[in-house]
Amino acid sequence: MSILAQSIADSVKNSSWIRKMFEAGAQLKEQFGAENVYDFSLGNPDLPAPSCVGDALRELATKAGTPFAFGYMPNAGYPWARQALAKHLTQEQGIALQAEHVLLTCGAAGGLNAVFRALLNHGDQVVTLAPYFVEYSSYVANHGAVLHAVPSQTDTFAPDINALSAAITPKTRILLLNSPNNPTGVIYSKAQLEEIATLLRNKSQEYGRPIFLIADEPYRFLAFDGATVPSLLPLYSHAICVSSFSKNLSLPGVRLGYIAITPNMPEQEELMAGLTLANRILGYVNAPVIGQHIMMHALGSQVDLSIYAARRKAMARVLDESGYEYQMPAGAFYFFPKAPGGDDIAFVQKLQQERILAVPGTGFGCPGHFRLAFCVDEDVIIRSQESFSKARA
Amino acid sequence: MSILAQSIADSVKNSSWIRKMFEAGAQLKEQFGAENVYDFSLGNPDLPAPSCVGDALRELATKAGTPFAFGYMPNAGYPWARQALAKHLTQEQGIALQAEHVLLTCGAAGGLNAVFRALLNHGDQVVTLAPYFVEYSSYVANHGAVLHAVPSQTDTFAPDINALSAAITPKTRILLLNSPNNPTGVIYSKAQLEEIATLLRNKSQEYGRPIFLIADEPYRFLAFDGATVPSLLPLYSHAICVSSFSKNLSLPGVRLGYIAITPNMPEQEELMAGLTLANRILGYVNAPVIGQHIMMHALGSQVDLSIYAARRKAMARVLDESGYEYQMPAGAFYFFPKAPGGDDIAFVQKLQQERILAVPGTGFGCPGHFRLAFCVDEDVIIRSQESFSKARA
Hints:
Structural class of chain A: alpha/beta
Shape of chain A: globular
Number of domains of chain A: 2
CATH class of the largest domain in chain A: Alpha Beta
Oligomer: homodimer
Largest sheet of chain A: 7 strands, mixed
Number of helices of chain A: 14
Radius of gyration of chain A: 21 Å
Order of helices and strands of chain A: HHEHHEHEHEHEHEEEHHHEHEEEHH
């Protein structure tokens, strides 16, 4: 019998194939040299953080000797930080937010866990669209609830409204959306979101309690060819946006994210009290204080998007010329091509033989595809072409 | 019906008296001026962080433009940070620790939650000694388990071994100790800890699986009059130490803590895999990256302890001269005197009328006492004497 909690013991066991895959990748790098391995496996942004991040650290250093410079503050974050963020999000989300509508968190992952802790009872259900970010099922299971992933439409990865409607039951407390999507790069249109909001309004009325709609959107900043990412907050009375500065400022290790709730929510005070309590008792206590200072310097800044745009085109060329089928990502920094032959795990192993590291779609609840993260140097993308062609042959 | 999860709705409701107390305190400060209110309610360290913290920020600022400077790293922390911490703890805990025995966390609160997530199944039991840090019951409830607080011996607050023995059942997975203790300031002796370890060895054998012993020790650095804090790691095969740099470096808002497990544990690899996974999926992902850099500069440094020592003596004089009964704290920065009249909530309100803010023992599972945090200026302590005398009258 394991000494671990059953669900943790199971997860450790089930994730052993991912570990093995990473170990195989590390071995390849050792054998052939890191520069000869094309590593598209990780969503760890490689662009340097904007210069305002260093400025923030230098300024904070001048105050480091002041009492309480790194002290506790209210669990929702410094009032000045919440106010500045609310002002920023008012522009971004197109709806007037006040400080009391936002809460600073330990990254988007901490934000999602706080929302789930605040809302979910044991046995509740969270619905999401497949493919989906692999950690969602763990975040939901942390709080004794169950994730139900509804397949998106084949090829386009658009929401399948009929399938969604059939999946929602009286146990459903939350619908979780991720747009721009990891791993597909799809951005849901305003019409699609309105259709989803209507569905949830009807289901909420039918079951006599609100179903919450959560937008997980750390890739909002990264939409290509002039695409826009519609906001959910103005569209639905029980919408919650969770996001972070991990990707747009290239600082995922800092752990700074936030939750924003729509000011149209009748129970907004109750929800914010619950979220603040959850943020505290889950042990985040408060979003890291230094991250809050960085945010004040960096609101409105971001990494150079033209670099990601060029990489996206380069990766598309590589895939075109090697004959892969894929949908051009509208946002985020991932491609999600079809696995030639259909078996994504087998094909990812074939890619490894050609010194390409990728992640099988099975890990995202969508077998038959594989994910390529293009937060790597453009030169690596270009040089990978021959290997992609060989693997395809 | 609340929109919140039942346990969160209950907690929000139950904590309303604490909020009211804090609001009353804030009102007092507005009415009489902050300098005329004696606020002993919060454990928010007021001493400035050591100068090495500012140095760390300045040095990090020079690297802020490097790719991955704030990127993801392994979920247990940077290998160099784990190694340095293991070396430091080897000295402190008196047992040889390697990097693979330590894991960096989002504060001690994040560390405790990661341990509980990794070890507890729904319905399991965690035993602790009362009085205890008020958040423990929430941390345990987060993971579907139940906290059972066993009263300590009256007056001395020493562990009551017979009561402890009676409280441990086949459902008990963890015994959680906090020494130096918040709120009592008690430090458990080596003999007491050995007695507890023997009890757990016997119970583990009886029930056929290990009961874990967790030492929560953020106040280890603060022991007065030459007192020492014995380590649990060498004493018991299933001991885990959880701590943070919040108090000794005065940076609780940074959220940097750690878990250290004894190298004597047969299942150490399995446990560390489970803790690392729990750290990831609870949404901490990794201990804040900037905190890890600060730690490298600050290991071995701490705030000026002589200031806390002087305050402790000043507070003892104030309580002596106003006729309060208390046990002199051996460590940490709290006094836990008896509430004159016996009703701690009523007496804390009486203190408020004299412009003194304190926390009732009821909040720590120990009615009849109240807690005074002496992380405030010595002058405030001295000036509070008259108010303490009036409240006593």
